[in-house]
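Ticket #390: bound-state structure for RFL.
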Amino acid sequence: MRTQVAIIGAGPCGLVLGALLAQSGIDALIIERKSGAYVLGRIRAGVLEQGTVGILESLGLDGRLKAEGLSHKGFALGFANRSLRIDLADLTGGKQVTVYGQTEVTHDLMDARAAAGLETLYEADGVELHEFASSKPYVTCKHNGMALRIDCDFIAGCDGFHGVARASVPKVALQEFERVYPFGWLGVLVDVPPCDPELIYASHERGFALCSMRSLTRSRYYLQCRADEDLSAWPDARFYDELRRRLDPQAAAHVVAGPSLEKSVAPLRSYVAEPLRFGRLFLAGDAAHIVPPTGAKGLNLAVGDAYYLARALHEYYREGSDSGINHYSARALDRIWKAERFSWWMTSLLHRFDHYTPFETRMQAAEFGYLEQSRAARIVLAENYVGLPL
Ligand code: RFL
Ligand code: PHB
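RESOLUTION: The complex was predicted; output attached.
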């Protein structure tokens, strides 16, 4: 087989890249290890920045997003017994975020791709990347029991943190930056109305809690937990008890308990690989970087990378210029590091760290007090949360 761009991974990054390339008339084939149903079964992010919504709009993918997505103009930060509303719209000159699940974004992208007759190879086994240091890279895999070779001009590694693309790069060519946090998030998805119309990020001496949602009838709750937490130790009743203890009394009183549709533990990690280009291979999305979910940046960064990469490839194919592909890595990394900083800061402010000394705990309290007191500090938080410009 032959294509111009072989995209590894059909998560949001690979699917958005595929859609943007199709819009530029660039031929791409997506190669995904799992089935479509499996990809849609993963419950992940829920908050879209305005820039992400804009990209989906430009692809004509905003029908269901506009109808079913929830506009959020603010959220609450809880700290001990205090609560502070971050008025995003007021602090950013009218910007907001949209609550619309990653599952739904992925669904819309998959439907549009199928309707346009664009090809995705699902359940591709043993994907391998070859010769990307040369001008004739290719990808091999097994699909429906057949060995395939896909010749291409470029390979886009959009295959997530545990994918094959980054692992194919010689170690000496790659610089890695990492912080693994000593805790995880225990998440529950449940068909009950959210306890508050807006998200609540709550810092508590027992640990962090987040009240989020997917719709007006579906809630998503998280609790800070051990990184190796045993799910079987968390029947629903224990989860809701613990959640209520970590929230202010008013929010706690509004938590409606219900049977969990999904329950999982996600580890928290900050990670960046540099650079993002190796000859004719580009890394994008979680394949290139991970943020802890506290700032709601993971999905948005993945879409941002896809946007930069699509623009670079548009310049290459449509304008005959190498400039975009030469600058992709630096351009994307500049924005990635700022999102890394924000996600690390918000994680550090709101979680309980067992190794913190009383000094560091006081630093968290001082940071929160400063946010309460200073509009400038709240503006910094708000402009990062709604998303830095693309
Ligand atoms: P994805 O979504 O991981 O998609 C990568 C795709 O590549 C496929 N793949 C391969 N395909 C072919 N060959 C191989 N060898 C392959 N190896 C992997 C995978 O099957 C998959 O379909 O990466 P992408 O597209 O870059 O998108 C990134 C976002 O998914 C991610 O940043 C966020 O979901 C992160 N994240 C969260 N972000 C938030 O903002 N809020 C959250 O609540 C939140 N929860 C989460 C998360 C990430 C999690 N992971 C990665 C374990 C919860 C979890 C559990
Ligand atoms: C979610 O709804 O899953 C969610 C929302 C905000 C975050 C992280 C996760 O910061």
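RESOLUTION NOTES: The chain has a mean pLDDT of 97.
TICKET STATUS: resolved
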